[in-house]
Amino acid sequence: MRASRLRAAFAAFIVVAWIPYAQAADTDMAAVLDAATQAPGPQLDVDPQMLADALECADATDTVRPGAVLLVHGTGLTATESWRKTYVPALTSDGYSTCTVRLPMRALSDAQVSSEYVVYALREMYTRYGDRISVITHSQGALEARWAIKFWPDIRDKVDDVIMLSGSSHGTLVADVVCLQKLKGCTESVAQQRPGSQFLAALNNGDETPGDIDYSSIYSYTDEIVVTSALDPSPALAGASNVAVQDICPGRPVMHIPMITDAVAYALARDALDHEGPVDPARIDRKAACTRLVARDMTPVDALINVSTYLPAGASIFLTRGMNEPPLMDYAAAQLPDDAYAPSSRPIRSLLSSALSLGPSLR
User: Fold this and answer.
1) b/e string for 53-69 if b means 16 or more Cβ within 10 A?
2) Hey, which residues does 122 pair with through a beta bridge?
3) What distance in Å separates the CA atoms of residue 77 and residue 314, rounded to the nearest whole number?
4) Is the Cα torsion angle 211, 213, 214, 217 positive or negative in sign?
5) Which domains does the chain carry?
6) Could you read off the pLDDT of 13-48 as tens digits, one per residue?
7) Are 303 and 261 in contact (CB under 8 A)?
8) Among 115, 86, 226, CA closest to 166
9) What are phi and psi of 137, to 5 degrees?
10) Which residues contact 120 (CB under 8 A, 6 or more apart)?
């Protein structure tokens, strides 16, 4: 009996003694979450655990370079489909630690909400790697990265480079076509990519390249999704280094999703990543880049796998039930110009502005 009482007393002592340490651990974890979700700028409304689960990192396998690279995928795709066989192995094998962020619903839901995932990812990576982060985006991913930088002031101090592949920064004709369907309409993020959408008006109002950040926009004149022209390229940003792959290799046909594996696009992205400042076409070895179809450190099989993602991307975009453009968040509504128009109310004007670059310039 005495022995059992002694064991019980000892167990009680251990429990009581452990409580402060357990409370301290809980407090530390709460502090970590608070640091990533409660920093300056709009409050992050997405559940912190969902934000954390969406971030996946791979450390460099060789010489570790300063900071790390965040990869942000585009509409209808996932982080795995876009980056697992392309930029992640290519960069990690060359000394860059990389992280991918999985945007909700294949990046088909409200881009304002998806941007919170990017905000969290950049804060967490800055803490983890102890240096400014570079961001490489594809398609719609440029919008989330730019939205995070525009509306969360602390993010500007955490980002070194923003490198955009086929970014839909000023909208896309395809979004108009999808949204003009009478039977289904379009998803939230597709509606937000219509030229003249409230989202784009708020995003592009004022300085398009805020902060002490190097912006590089890399695009193609043969892109069938982010349709662009030499006179008014949609991906181009005021204040950025804007380069088409055809500026390096005239006549080179590069479509939207294959931009991820294209040798010239990759050479341009690596130039921006590896050097101080944004991309500089003068540094590109044109002969080496133009004679390759697939990016260095990627294989033709990787390129074929990448092209195959057209199927899930197209299916998700065209089969998901339409919801149209969501209203702007309160913090962004103040950025909406008075003369902005809703493309759903002026479909013909919106369609023509996409095709002929006749719409209102926000640059």
Assistant:
1) ebbbbbebeeeebebbb
2) none
3) 9
4) negative
5) 43-356 (3.40.50.1820)
6) 433 343 443 444 444 444 445 555 556 789 999 999
7) yes
8) 226
9) -125, 160
10) 36, 37, 44, 46, 48, 51, 52, 54, 55
Confidence of residue 336 (pLDDT cuts 50, 70, 90): confident
> Look-up: residue for tokens 């409580």?
19
Q: Cβ contacts of residue 92 below 8 Å, gap of 6+?
A: 58, 59, 60, 61, 98
Number of Cβ within 10 Å of residue 41's Cβ equals: 15
N-term to C-term CA, the chain: 84
Per-residue H/E/C for the chain: CHHHHHHHHHHHHHHHHHHHHHHHHHHHHHHHHHHHHCCCCCCCCCCHHHHHHCEEEECCCCCCCCCCEEEECCCCCCHHHHHCCCHHHHHHCCCCCEEEECCHHHHCCCHHHHHHHHHHHHHHHHHHHCCCEEEEEECCHHHHHHHHHHHCHHHHCCEEEEEEECCCCCCCHHHHHHHCCCCCCCCHHHHHCCCCCHHHHHHHCCCCCCCCCEEEEEECCCCCCCCCCCCCCCCCCCCCEEEEHHHHCCCCCCCCHHHHCEHHHHHHHHHHHHCCCCCCHHHCCHHHHHCCCECCCCCHHHHHHHHCCHHHHHHHHHHCCCCCCCCCCHHHHCCCCCCCCCHHHCHHHHHHHHHHCCCCCCC
Residue 316, C-beta contacts closer than 8 angstroms, at least 6 positions apart:
76, 106, 108
> How many Cα atoms occupy the beta-carbon half-sphere of 233 within 13 Å?
23
Using only C-alpha atoms, what is the Rg of the chain? Answer: 23
CB half-sphere exposure, 192, CA atoms < 13 A = 31
pLDDT digits (tens, 9 = 90+) for 269-318: 999 999 999 999 999 999 999 999 999 889 999 999 999 999 989 888 88
As a dihedral over the C-alpha atoms of residue 127, residue 130, residue 132, residue 134, rounded to 10 degrees, the angle is: -80
Say if residue 42 is exposed, middle or buried (CB neighbours under 10 Å; 0-12, 13-18, 19+).
Answer: middle
Nearest Cα to Cα of residue 264 among 297, 218, 231: 218
Q: How far is CA 219 from CA 12, 182, 274, in A?
A: 66, 31, 19
Strand duo 159-165 + 214-219: pairing: parallel
